[in-house]
Amino acid sequence: MAKESPDDFRCPISHEIMSDPVILSSGHTFDRASIQRWLDSGHRTCPITKLPLPEHPSLIPNHALRSLISNYTNISLPKSQSSCSDPQALISALTSKSSPIESKLESLSQLGRLTKRDSALRRRLTEAGAVPAVLRCVDSDDPGLEEKALSLLLNLSLDDDNKVGLVAEGAVNRVVKVLRVGSPDCRAIAATMITSLAVVEVNKAIIGAYPDAIPALVSLLIEGKGREKKEAATALYAISSFADNRRRAIDCGAVPILMELLDSGLERAIEVLGILVKCKEGREEMEKVDGCVKVLVLVLRNGSARGVQYALFTLNCLCCYSEEICSEVRRDGVMEICFGLLEDDNDKIRRNASTLVQTLRGNRAIR
Q: Which residue from 18, 324, 337, 351 has the fewest beta carbons nearer than 10 Å?
């Protein structure tokens, strides 16, 4: 169905069928999750026209297009998938004690494929009581069953309405356990699940309050491979907008680990540092890291637009905090770099560069 669907049903950013189409002030329609990520990244232009947007762009639901997509989806599902019109049939295969693992794996695979793009089916599954059954599969000793169950949970969490319900059903406890003892692929999915659940503000506090949640993510930064480290850093970024979680991450030793990862090329680390630098404890820990300024300056010289934006912000916070760091930043030629960035196309980079220039000129430390 996805391959044959009209192009107008696809988001211009993700190129996937839209589950929640919204209209930007430019007149173009995008899937809400995709355009929100674009805006959260600091962009204030339309992805298609490149024309400027307001500081706080409105996202207007495109009810007509959503209805068309929903009708098309219902008409276009192949007959071989007709059993999914009754989600209870597939859920029963997960809950039945007599169901072999192969049957459960097939049910999870079918549900995983269908729920990836079908928001209506995601809602029907949760209403039919699928979550407890899937969570029991996450507890399985079978790695394949665990991975497919986690992937299905991640799909179900794509809908904001499901995020609070998943937490209430005990999803965080299972996810944190996987972060500790799961396979590499499962741990990466579990970290992504934390990021998805943290879209809802109240979930950030709940996740952080779990004794092992943040320590498990920090451990994954140390022990994980490439994908695991990136997803763990993304999850920490997502939950650290809640102030108490920043201090928890810092207490777990996240700052020197993130600095090391940033120096090794994991640019996602600068985004987390840009959150942790907002609190006094974070600035104190960064000041203790040998070569902290040099690593941040390297991001200014060679990083992506988002990396440069966060590096500027982090350096400014550190310069306001420490006269010693301010002097080191000036010696490393950051003033000249900032002058060049004042002409950058990215509005946030220009603003952050201007702010850092003013801080360096004033050389006023605030403890």
A: 324
